[in-house]
Each structure stands twice: as structure tokens, then as C-alpha cells.
Amino acid sequence: MRYLVVDTRSQVPLYEQILGQIRGRVRTGELAPGTPLPSVRQLAADLGVNPNTVAKAYMLLEREGIIQTVRRRGAFVAGTAPARAHDWMDRRFSESVEKVLEEAERLGLDRKQLLTAVKQRLQGKKSKRNPTGGGSR
Fold this sequence. Notes:
By secondary structure, the protein is mainly alpha-helical.
């Protein structure tokens, strides 16, 4: 999995970066159920991280039902992984939205102000993605 990348300068722990990237690839179908994953040692070497970091990520992914490990055969994407990855993303996004709503309420923003702020941020993101105004997502 040479396409995984970790940023050692990020405040996000390395194991969480690995978790997020594997979850994301499962969610998009890039990693289908049954796909073998590199060994802990191999992925650690590829990423230049401690094997314990990868082992922790794999352990958490296994607890979530995203991967399964088979003794002497290695780690594989679990059959239920796509659904579980979507569920995880939905929960995480809902938690983030709830925090935004709580903060908006704390600041005294009404619904119209909140929606206007979100629309402005989305428009700003769209402009940054495609400064020429041509086809965007």
C-alpha cells in the first residue's frame, strides 16, 4: 500500500492517519472485501514508521470490523468493511455537525446566519478548487 502517506508534522497521530486512509479507501471501494493488506512490518517500512504504530492501527481497524486477521495468512479487508466504514463516517460527520450547531447556538447565531455562513464557506471551497470557474464537483 505505497499510496498511504503519513505526515509526521501533523498533530493527527500517525496511527489515526493510517486508520483514516484505510477507512477512506474501503469506503470508496478502492479496497474491496477480501483484499490483502501488507504485513505490519511491510507497511511500517513503506511508511517509515514504527511497526507498533501500524499494529495499533490494524488492531483498531479489526475491532471496528474493517479488517480481519487470519493467523499465518495476514490481514484482509473484511466482508462487512464497506458498511462499517460508511457507518463510521456517518457517525463522525454527525458528531461534527452537532458540535457546529452547539457552537452556533452558544454564539447566538440564528438558522439564517448559520446557513449563510455554511454557504459562504462552501462557495469559498469551490472557488479554491476551481479558480477558473469551469467544471467543478
